[in-house]
Specification:
Layout (H helix, E strand, L loop, with lengths): L1 H33 L7 H43 L2 H17 L2 H9 L5 H25 L3 H18 L2 H14 L4 H13 L7 H4 L3 H19 L18 H37 L4 H41 L7 H15 L1 H13 L6 H25 L4 H14 L5 H9 L7 H18 L3 H5 L2 H41 L2 H6 L1
InterPro entries: UmpAB (IPR011435)
Pfam family, one: DUF1538
Keywords: Membrane, Transmembrane, Transmembrane helix
């Protein structure tokens, strides 16, 4: 028992350290801006700091809970359903799983809160359906061994065709939805699900094909939101500015947070109950998980629930309004272009602190046998995200259409897929949502909205798209590194062959005959 408590304590401290690394750089940059060029009211500053504390504690419990509950559920369900060898059952279970897990994704909840005119539940259900459908397509790809590159080309061609037909107010939101969906809830689950399914195959490509599930699940939300735009026509698409809290003292501050807490407790209970019900039925039918693991999964679910409630309360009540307000303050200054380097600086540190990015960099280092180091990979991603956020802030200030960035970006990514090892393409498209972690949706997007509101721009078309820009970066960065690795490997092989040939030519005839 004591050993178990010690391990749990170590895990909690590990998750706390990961969360602090992600949040503290943003806090430091915000505080520097607040005390220099972007003064904010004391009440808003206190709400921001309390929101940050709740966000840190919430993410700590949530990520621990996801590791304890969602990852084992994904792997066991993937393994269990493939054992049935019944395609219709596998398709049905995969869709249901993708749907209900997406409903509980915190980053999606945060995005839905900020999208004007479309009710939260309509957007969340639409995105969840998209993930469910495309998780099924990822399953079929694995079972029938379809090329990921070919599927991505067809799907992104459909994306840009639908985007051409869709109203402009939906395009940036659709691409943002693809970025936030692959968040801390869905990614561990889908990756574990893929490992569980790949266990049914014993060929040499099985491990490579276990990548790509997140990539296809990211396309689903984009297509589903664009399809929604052709069906659902709201009466008004005007953005309603976020309410900036007016706080007079510490008691009012507490009341502000305590008043919203019951609402998020109810929302998260509704989001998580379908997952609990589904897994209970699955366990009753398949008896896949031993009793000890069931207890661990149950405890993990409790941690997940507590973490989600604290995270969303901190984000929606304290963090987002402060980000929005700071954007407005900076945009009101004579040097509003300062938001470009500020966004780049935040982006550089955010992506380096993401736990999923750390896992990704180690993964690439292992695949390339050290030819591409984790340090070089991390630095490349940081620079890429910093540049993409700088361009996103330029978009906010100038009103340039998101199409001018996403079309060439995705075209370059798809073109690279023909020249790099397939495993790099799968990892690159899988990691599109990895870079756009919680900080992007909870601070940078509200920050961009605040700037856009102040300068009189169109929030829906100009501010939204920040998450999409960040999510697009790894697609190009990782595949470019893959291309470097491929060229370097070819060069080394040719060099070694020439050296061997030169040595061989210098040998006496009798030694050559003996060889």
């Amino acid at each position: 028992m004591n050993l178990r408590k010690t391990k749990l304590k170590e895990k909690l401290l590990e998750k706390l350290e990961e969360t602090l690394k992600a949040v503290l750089p943003v806090l430091a940059i915000v505080l520097v801006l607040c005390f220099t060029v972007a003064p904010v009211e004391p009440g808003i500053m206190l709400a921001f700091l309390l929101g940050a504390v709740l966000l840190i504690v919430g993410m700590m419990f949530f990520t621990l809970g996801a590791d304890m509950a969602m990852t084992p559920i994904g792997e066991n369900v993937g393994t269990g359903m493939t054992k049935t060898r019944k395609l219709w059952l596998m398709v049905a279970l995969t869709f249901i799983l993708g749907f209900i897990v997406t409903m509980a994704e915190p980053d999606l909840q945060v995005l839905a809160e900020q999208v004007p005119s479309v009710p939260n539940i309509v957007l969340v259900l639409s995105v969840a359906a998209g993930v469910g459908i495309f998780l099924v397509s990822a399953l079929l790809r694995m079972l029938y061994r379809v090329s990921l590159s070919h599927m991505l080309i067809v799907l992104y061609a459909a994306v840009f065709l639908l985007a051409y037909l869709a109203p402009g107010d939906y395009i940036a939101v659709a691409f943002d939805a693809g970025g936030v969906t692959t968040g801390p809830m869905t990614v561990p689950f889908i990756m574990a699900f893929g490992i569980g399914i790949s266990a049914i195959r014993s060929d040499e490509r099985a491990e490579d094909d276990s990548f790509g599930l997140v990539a296809l699940s990211s396309v689903g939300p984009i297509l589903s939101v664009l399809a929604l735009s052709l069906i659902y026509r709201p009466e008004s698409a005007e953005y309603v500015p976020a309410r900036i809290p007016d706080i007079g003292d510490s008691v009012e501050l507490w009341k502000l947070f305590a008043g919203e807490l019951p609402e998020y407790m109810k929302e998260m209970a509704i989001s998580l109950l379908p997952i609990i019900f589904f897994f209970s039925v699955f366990q009753f039918v398949f008896r896949q998980v031993p009793k000890r693991m069931l207890i661990r999964t149950g405890v993990g679910m409790i941690y997940t629930y507590v973490g989600l409630v604290l995270f969303l309360t901190g984000v929606n009540v304290g963090f987002m309004p402060a980000g929005n307000y700071m954007g407005q303050v900076l945009a009101g200054q004579p040097y509003k272009w300062l938001i470009v380097p500020a966004g780049m600086l935040i982006g550089f540190f955010i992506v380096r602190a993401e736990p999923a990015v750390f896992v990704l960099t180690r993964q690439v280092e292992d695949i390339t046998s050290g030819a591409i180091s984790a340090g070089a990979m991390g630095l490349s991603l940081s620079i890429g995200v910093a540049v993409s956020l700088g361009l996103a802030m330029v978009r906010v200030l100038t009103g340039i259409s998101v199409f001018w960035f996403v079309i060439p970006g995705y075209a370059a990514a798809l073109l690279l897929s023909f020249f790099v090892p397939k495993i790099f393409t799968a990892i690159a498209f899988d990691s599109g949502g990895v870079a756009s972690g919680p900080m992007t949706a909870t601070f940078l997007l509200p920050f961009a909205i605040g700037v856009c509101t102040n300068i009189g721009g169109n929030v829906v078309t100009d501010a939204f798209g920040v998450v999409a820009m960040v999510a697009m970066t790894p697609l190009i960065t990782i595949q470019t590194l893959g291309l470097v690795y491929e060229l370097r490997s070819g060069y080394l092989e040719r060099r070694d062959a020439k050296r061997a040939e030169a040595v061989f030519e210098q040998l006496p005839d009798d030694e050559i005959i003996e060889l």
